[in-house]
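Team,

Forwarding the record for the chain on the shared tracking sheet. I've put the sequence and predicted structure together so nobody has to dig through attachments.
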Amino acid sequence: MSDESIAARIERLVSEEHELRAREQADSPDPAALEEDRERLQAVEVELDRCWDLLRRRRALRSAGADPESATARDADTVEHYLQ
């Protein structure tokens, strides 16, 4: 996977995130739709974190003179539980 394809995936996910956040207002009277959108939003946020993590790791490897192709996407649990 190239940096460009990861960046394009990030762009698509960000667009979906914005759409879901906008729909939250419209879904307010429908609890089922609201819950479904919130669950999808959470999944999108996790996938965005994974994509950003992969892109940063690829760039770091490239900067260090290593092969960026050796970076693989980490699982959601790893990415979501980093110590900041």
